[in-house]
Batch of 2 targets.
Target 1
Amino acid sequence: MSTPDGLPTDLQDRISAGRVLATRAEPYLGSALHALRTRVSPQVQTLAADRWWQMYINPETTSSWTPEQWATELRAQVRRLLFEHAERAEKFGLAEPEQLRRWQAASDSTVRSETHRAGHDSWPQPGVLVEDLPGGRVGMPVEEVYELLRLQNFEGVEPQGSSAHGVRQPWEQPAGYNELEPPDAKMVRYRCAQEAITAQRDHRPVAPDLAQWATNFGRPAVDWRRTLEAAVSRMLAHYAGARDWSYSRPRRYGSSGSLILPGMVAPAQPHVVVVRDTSPSMTFERDLLRTVTAEVSGLLDEKARVTLIDTSSEAATARRVTSRQQLAQVQRGEGTDMGAGLEAAGRARPRPHLVVVLTDGDTDWPERKPVHGAGVVVVLFGSRAQQLAAQVPHWASTLVVDKLV
């Protein structure tokens, strides 16, 4: 006998049992697990999901799976949909087959590594564990894992469903057929995020990857461009305003007979040094890095002279920036030490009035301010920006960029 969606009854029973076990293991995934729809598809090797919350199953190759195995697989599939790997792949600009294979491997690693580490089941295991990669760490987002695989020349695995990469596969149903509409999918994500946040508040266990996702999901996007512009303008007004006394003879309206009164004179065009983190950890953020740098440069084009210092473990040679095209020339290195860039900014001539540091925050900071007589703004972005913001020294202003809006 078969169910209305074409699955053998006994297989559907095991999937239902697996759904129950998955909900018991992670109750905050309940809405997502019940939103996932099943279909028969002999064209897939075992199973795969599309980006519209439909899971395609090959009954012949999955007929022996136990409810525990289904629970593990279901938890992996809904993670991929909750984390929006398809949408993120599109924003990352992936198109070539090699890129899609590598992204598939990165997606598999991020959604399966957590279950594997937790020891709930030994099956299925990801092809690559994140922490086994040089520079890998628990909780890395899919974009970072992708870049680590690229640096290792990892070929990847064959693309599966569009839930991982966004590219519709030949065996997937046409658009509009029994799919979960975007507003409904957003509501499912919202419910899961709220359940995870509530579980944390009640001191119930929540997997680290879901805990981090839920926290970020509920945070409203901030127009960081306006915030950055306000911070830069405020600091320039404070540090680069009229601040020097002069006894040079003023114009007629500023004199008092033969007595020359001291007056305030403004210095030359304000000088801003941008210290840009170009360490390996910033590779995956290359587009965001250039975008943020371009925004800083654009803000300052009419207001200040801009000098750029690319910094990894050492500071590269300072260079003046006069066009956005120059921002694409990135001087990369190994390691991360923003202190080296700040010290180089302190040696810049003319002396800077403002220093803007662009980094993911994964660095040590000097205890004392290396730049005297200048304001310092640290712009943090990346997956751990909010977490690392607390480590920025008190002598610097901090701006966290969660996402481009």
Target 2
Amino acid sequence: MIAQTLSLAFGWDPEVRGILVVGLAVIGLMGSTWLLLFTNLGARLGLLVAVAGFLGIMVIISGIWTMYGSGPRGADPTWRPQEIIIGDISNASLPEAQDLSTWTPLATEDKSRGEAVTAATVVLLKTPTNPNGLFTTTDEFTFQEAYQTGGERYFFYLLGRPNYLVVKAQPTVDEVLVPGAPPPKATPDPTQPPVWVLMIRDQGNRRGPSALVLLYSTILFLVTCYALHRRDVRGQELRERDQAALKA
């Protein structure tokens, strides 16, 4: 509340105001905690306890980030095109894709099919970033069947088989547009060879950045806890030595 009030009093731009709010919050919350530890425990021990507490909170927060895939996020899973086959699917370079009889057909409403169709559309369309595309507009082709294989995950989802998916795009018949009439429905042209797009599932690294934060925070937290433990052990040894010297 104090940080927001001060930022509004300055009346700076939202970007600068956001930095100011975060800076004042760090000074007001973390700084006040460190000041209390500094006055009660001393500069060195107070700083060590404050750092250990901060790292402990970071371990908890980064653990939640890693569990739910929130916080700092890496690349999301996506379908990555591997090959475009024109004509017979048996010409595919991947041996498993030459025979689709063992693959699982995907329904039109399947989520994987929808994602794969979107990725295949980007590959098939000719754009400035994709000059090798086969079609200029989406009206020139229509997607038909799609098949998927693999993707089994085991050992806590760390290992598994590659997940492949192939979609079939069929060129359409050139329709004549009638003025004032709605656009005709795309009709597949059976005289044209089909176009198969073979894709592999890229799992991405959505939890990668948060997992790294968790790893580094855990290591530093254990180091600071060990330093506090060694300080306690050393203090106990000094007290026992002083007591032994007094008794002597």
